[in-house]
Please model this.
Amino acid sequence: MNKTLDKIALFIAQGAYSGRAPIAPGTAGTVVGILLYLLIKDLGAFGYGAVCAAVIAIGTWAAGCVDRMYGTKDNSTIVIDEIAGYLLALFFIPFSWGNVAAGFLIFRAFDIVKPWPLRRFERIPGGPGVMLDDLGAGVYTNAVLQIAALALKQ
Model:
């Protein structure tokens, strides 16, 4: 790979370098996910979904590149998976600061605990193995938020 692509992959995989935070890089990456969410929340379902798909596809590539560069498996500086997972967590969730905060807390809990079968996804090699457990945490978070929204309407 050339130096320019390496730098691009690092920038993307490390979530604009938020993954270099000395403490809780995954949390720092999720904060970048919140900022991206705030930028795209009004795009409508198609636009939001397109951005999510692009972040997932480009993030998978970048995460794989960074792991190859460093010779690691899910390097701790890679946070594009948290960013993508958080975006999935809030897909089709109405905007409110409460939902943003609840999504953050629930997503981080699922990302850390990795309930079944999320931990198994980490065994998958390359970029997909980096991304899938956090995408799953985003789906779980979304389900919890959707159920909570239904329950609160009652």
